[in-house]
Amino acid sequence: MALSGEDFYALRAYEVGDDLRRVHWPSTARLDELMIRQNEMPWQARVTVLLDVRRRAHSGESLELAVSAAASIVAACWQRGSLVRLVTTDGVDSGYGSRHAHVEAIMETLASVELAHDDRLAGVLGSLTRPGNAGGLVALFTAEAPTKDVQNIARLQFRFASLTVVLFERSAYDLSAAPTRRRASPVVGSIVRVDGSNSFPAAWNQAFGGRTVMAARGFG
Questions:
Q1: pLDDT in tens, 36-88
Q2: Main-chain phi, psi angles of 142, to 5 degrees
């Protein structure tokens, strides 16, 4: 975000450890959220990875695939210098960060993820509409998730510059599953479908030519 004045600088949401002398008070008052003046980096891409961990929408096999895909996206975006963030449907929110320790913490969280009975999706999606959310959003769900869930995710397009939904069809993790007729999906920025004949890397490359989501959508 460019502001008037002698210097060009960016604004971002406060992170624990930031120097409070860099708080931009006019924007903080307007947004009702601490905003930090970031002189040393005029603009930095942000990517939020939303992972569905609800037991009613997953099996152990499908969760393993989704976790692996989430880890790949986080690593690729971090390597491009993006601020990355992990959010899960049971309430985990890592916050944005780009330091090695931050990404290591995300990877440790992903390594210990388990299927959750707790369903906080509505609250999580509500939190993603608040100020401070920006950049790219990648949501990873199985095709077993209710259509209304994908519809609710589609409504986040007004908040994020790019929106991608990765859907894992049953045939991607259940070899006995017959190919299913794909349901019509609400219009979102991009849909990446993973099935028995199209692995996540192949489906992602097909959609974005091997690039990370921010690059594919013209950011970063």
A1: 776 544 446 899 999 999 988 888 899 999 999 999 999 999 988 899 999 99
A2: -90, 160
Q: Quote the distance between the C-alpha of residue 22 and its chain's center.
A: 27
Residue in this structure with the two tokens 């929106």, named with its chain if needed? 163
| Per-residue pLDDT reduced to its tens digit, 136-178 | 999 999 988 888 888 889 888 888 888 999 999 989 988 776 6
User: Which fold, 46-216?
Assistant: Rossmann fold (3.40.50)
| Region for 132 from its dihedrals, namely left if φ exceeds 0, alpha if ψ lies in -120 to 50, beta otherwise | left
| Positive or negative: CA dihedral 188, 52, 149, 176 | positive
The whole-angstrom separation of Cα 9 and Cα 115 is 42
Domain boundaries, the chain: 1-43, 46-216
Q: What is the pLDDT of residue 41?
A: 41
Strands 136-142, 46-51: pairing is: parallel
Taking the model in full, what pTM does it have?
0.74
DSSP strand pairing (10-13 vs 35-38): antiparallel
